[in-house]
Amino acid sequence: MTIVGARPQFIKAAPVSRALAAGGMREQIVHTGQHFDVGMSDVFFDELGIPAPAHHLGVSGGGHGAMTGAMLQALEPLMEREAPDWVLVYGDTNSTLAGALAASKLHIPVAHVEAGLRSFNRRMPEEQNRIVTDHLSDLLLTPTDGATQRLREEGIPDARIVQVGDVMFDAALYYADRAAERSAVLAQHGLQAGAYILATVHRADNTDDPERLRAIVDGLEAVAAEHPVILPLHPRTRAALGRHGFALARVRAIDPVGYLDMVALERHAALIATDSGGVQKEAYFHGVPCVTLRDETEWTELVDLGWNRLAPPTRADIASEIRHALGTTGRGGRPYGDGNAAGRIVAALAPRQAYQ
Ligand code: UDP
Hints:
Elements: E1 2-4, H1 7-22, E2 29-31, H2 38-48, E3 55-56, H3 64-82, E4 87-90, H4 94-105, E5 110-113, H5 125-136, E6 139-142, H6 145-153, E7 161-163, H7 167-182, H8 185-188, E8 197-200, H9 204-207, H10 210-224, E9 229-232, H11 235-244, E10 252-254, H12 259-267, E11 271-274, H13 277-285, E12 290-292, H14 300-304, E13 308-310, H15 318-325, H16 341-349
Parallel strand pairs: 1-2, 1-4, 2-3, 4-5, 5-6, 6-7, 8-9, 8-11, 9-10, 11-12, 12-13
Helix pairs in contact: 1-2, 1-7, 1-16, 3-4, 4-5, 7-12, 7-13, 10-15
Bound molecules: uridine-5'-diphosphate.
């Protein structure tokens, strides 16, 4: 039973769903409803060929407690009824936490994809979700050496950890050609390959704090005087801009795009400025320099390799960080595996192993 609910989880689940089907395993997808509209959810099921959810919990909005609680309440009877061999959870959202907690209380083995990530910033809801999920899980599927190492340091037995690589690398490789064939997003927005900056902003730390959001808006606006800046706007950010009364003048804000359009925008960007975890890695997969609009990152190997630099909003001058990073490249390396993380995940799930 796969629990998903938020945009990055649909993308991470796509290669695993395909590998599960190829391995002859039966998968039941549960969509919690955390992201629910066409642009944040349906488009990914359509484009990525993910099986339709068998269950849709319809839980969205509200505070963290209300949302996670409603998911728990809905998941428990469902898991009892369906009695899956494994519950598979992804990443670090409230859907991840609810899936892991509901399953572990029912003594159903939990496998966590993208285990071992840490920002060491306990204020982030994602960090809280990761830590609890990792420590509840029976099988911790890690993307990198660093993630594996951190779990060991936290006392998780080696027998529970399998380093599989990053499923987002699988997805980037698998969908690159399809994006090249099907996406017309550059033409739609009058963008020249290699001559624009792609930005995304959605972390609560940035959107909820007016000073940080102001610093990001000012930085991107300054750069937009020199290069086109395109910003697919997450609904949370759109709402925050309205709430704080910040207008974008030169930056071109568009609705969130589907994954194939996003891959096309990423591949042809001169630079990516983002606070997204997934987009930082995708910049690297496509050989594009990245500026991360945060105080820290979970994906430190990209900073070490020189592909990514941190620009903490309010502390760094975002526009000059972007100007400095333009045209740079980093060192080589293969920190995210070989593009077959999904195959390794399926191998780790069978035969059934429970450590409870
Ligand atoms: N993404 C997308 N359309 C967009 C913005 C992002 O398809 O308009 C994809 C992006 O390519 C990546 C994933 O969504 O695969 C990242 O999700 P998000 O930034 O929401 O979450 P995070 O990775 O920070 O958890």
